[in-house]
Amino acid sequence: xxxRKMFFWLHLAAGTLAGSVILVMCVTGAALGxxxxxxxxxxxxERTVTVGEGAKRLPMEALLAQALQRESDPxxxxxxxxxxxxxxxxxxxRSRSVFLNPYNGQWLEDSAPRLRAFFDxxxxxxxxxxxxxxxxxxxxxxxGAANLLFLFLACSGLYLWWPRMWTWSTLQTGMTFRRGLxxxxxxxxxxxxxxxxxxxxxxxxxxxSTVMSYQWANHLVYRLSHSQVPPANAAPRPFEGxxxxxxxxxxxxxxxxxxxxxxxxxGWQSIAMRLPAGKSANVSxxxxxxxGGRPDKxxxxxxxxxxxxxxxxxxxxxxxxGRKVRAWMRFAHTGEAGGLLGQSIASAASLGGVFLACTxxxxxxxxxxxxxxxxxxxxx
Length: 380
Known about the structure:
This protein is α+β, with helices and mostly antiparallel strands. The chain contains twelve helices and eight strands.
């Protein structure tokens, strides 16, 4: 058996084994490609307000006090943007958001709860195949294994596509869609052409998802970048003092702290603050000077509530090389690291993965049926 034939059969076996799971992940990945833009468009009436001439924003404490008077259930986060006509968003978790007019405190309920629930359901299928809390470890193991097999399929597919002789006719056959083909020839042509154009984006996305799926892959990123491997149970540091549903929010002294956070990064675009729980001494802010899809534009600031002194300042530049690479991988997987162009490429690659899975499964079924048809005369 030649090397190419061995890789062909391994490619076929891996695709047959993981094809259905890969198909599900690619379909849901394509659907999630522009989730943020779609949800923001649906919420466009709540995210902006009309600003009159000479209007002044309410202090943060007064604004949040009005919100607490209207609803006793504590919100978990507060996000505001630099644009004068933008509203202040109160986050009650992934399932609900409320917007406040920063000039008069008007309560604006989210108009897209069903759309948010729809995307949450798609993400659940994408990450855990729609499994519940109890079955998620098993589902995560299945999707992680499918990611590894998908990575092998992309790499071995590129090897199998590589022509033995570099001529224009062979390149044209493997790179372009040919008209008039049907059946197996059409599936083979689509599988080769789509695989060629989408191979590299898919490899990047699958490598990033593998790092997010496996601890050993995550540690490998740190080792290859010559950085200290974080402890096994370490996780990205959350906002300090996050309030729970049972604890009473303490908004005292937030006006001065919010002003300090805005001054810390002059070109800030958005700031997210977790409400401190009880009498917590520190308040944490995540300051973003970009559009939300670039980790190098983010920084975390922790301030002492009583004195306003800086407890911790964590810009992206002070992270280790391994942590920087790991942060970029999260946004490279979704394409957000490249803005709208990156998201378009990631969505196109996910859609290409759908066609690769469908044509690959079709070719495998056709091969199996052809094998059975040849075996029957021999049996007779």
